Amino acid sequence: MHISSAFDSGNIEVINTDSRPIELAIRQDNNSEFYQWFHFRLEGQVGETFPLRIVNAGKAAYPEGWENYRVCASYDRQSWFRLPAEYDGSTLDFTVELEQPGIYLAYFAPFSWDRHLDLLAWAQCHERVNLETLGQTLDGRDMSLLTIGDPESAKHRVWMIARQHPGETMAEWFVEGFLETLLDDANPAARTLLEDTAFYVVPNMNPDGSVRGHLRTNAVGTNLNREWQDPSMERSPEVYLVREKMLSVGGDIFLDIHGDEALPFNFVAACEGVPGYDERHAKLEETFKRAFLAASPDFQTERGYDLDKPGEANMTVGTNWCGHQFRTLALTLEMPFKDNENLPDPIEGWSPARCQQLARDILFPIRETLKALA
Ligand SMILES: [Zn+2]
Question: Per the database record, which ranges form the Peptidase M14 domain (predicted)?
């Protein structure tokens, strides 16, 4: 029996392989106390059963994330299914019965750095797309921006950023689905949108954290979604570079794509607590939500975060900073690590395919909101 995690976004520490269950621990993000993302490979005899225990689950960033959570597993690294798990308030226990010599186990279906590069390379070949490198991260990776449509003639600008929190891989699965839809020449909604709208898409806001197997921070332990008021090239070049570009081109809609560890629903959080939140903000938010509800039964508005009180928003959060700075609609979209409890999938739970479908369905609320801008 052997366990390894020395690969892209790998994260696990082996504590004891002689014990039953086998004891494992999740590594903290570098220079930070956050942890919850795990990704490793277990190798053994086909037919053998391995009980596994993550001994430090209870002290993870969001312990409530383990309640009713099922582990993501794959033999071929293409299709991911779920394994039942037990959480007792301190450890997470699950059992693997090997059907092949090796199995990959992860907090959510990984979206690899190679797949990210493939996505950029594929997109740049489309005639409507411009690929731009804004600068480099602290580990020296490129911060890439895709512009879709014609920024010169565009009447509207829409921003979409994803994976500020690198362990939230569902966010980049979502972006992949979004780009495929937007660049589908047979899609009339996409073609209509691109007639007068330019899209600015950052598929991965946190390349270093992604490759390092972090949950929430970049190479030096900075939580990027608390850097928007005062980013720096030393602590948070990712936000600094994207924010500069935002300030230079502006925008009408800002979408920040995330995953939530605990809540088993898709929902959005708006910027109702920023100074100057007004009727225009509220109208755009209402228009967006109503259209999203009409477009997708996977979206809902009953469950989500508590609303910020007027004027009490945390302005270091990307959505709040954008909504305030540009006086327009800014939303955080949260997808579940677990499943959509209103429409569960017993085999896969919330999955890459469902992220991509939700991304297809977001085109309609974007269109409706842009119409309401006029
Ligand atoms: Zn997040």
Answer: 109-373
Distance from the CA of 106 to the center of ligand 1, in angstroms? 17
**Digit-coded pLDDT (tens) for 107-117:** 999 999 999 99
Topology at the third CATH level for domain 2-106:
Immunoglobulin-like (2.60.40)
Rg (CA), the chain: 20
- Residue 254, classed as helix, strand or coil, is strand
Query: 188: CA distance to ligand 1 center in Å?
Result: 32
pLDDT (average), residues 342-347: 98
For residues 107 and 312, give the distance between their C-alpha atoms in angstroms, rounded to a whole number: 33
Could you tell me if 208 and 137 are in contact, meaning their C-beta atoms sit under 8 angstroms apart? Answer: yes
- Taking the centre of ligand 1 as the mean of its atom positions, its distance from the CA of residue 162, in whole angstroms, is 9
Would you say the CATH fold of 113-373 matches that of 2-106?
A: no
Judge contact between 167 and 214, C-beta under 8 A.
yes
State in Å: Cα 205 to ligand 1 middle.
11
Q: pLDDT, tens digit, for every residue of 45-55?
A: 999 999 999 99
Residue 255, by phi and psi: left (phi above 0), alpha (psi -120 to 50) or beta? beta
Active-site residue set: 334
| Parallel, antiparallel or unpaired: strands 49-54 and 71-74 | unpaired
Q: What predicted TM-score, i.e. pTM, was given to this entire model?
A: 0.98
Quickly name the fold that domain 113-373 has.
Aminopeptidase (3.40.630)
The tokens of 370 are what? 């842009």
CB-based burial label for 30 (10 Å; 0-12, 13-18, 19+): middle
Run of H or E including 16: strand 13-16
**Structural domain spans, the chain:** 2-106, 113-373
CA distance 372 to 125: 32
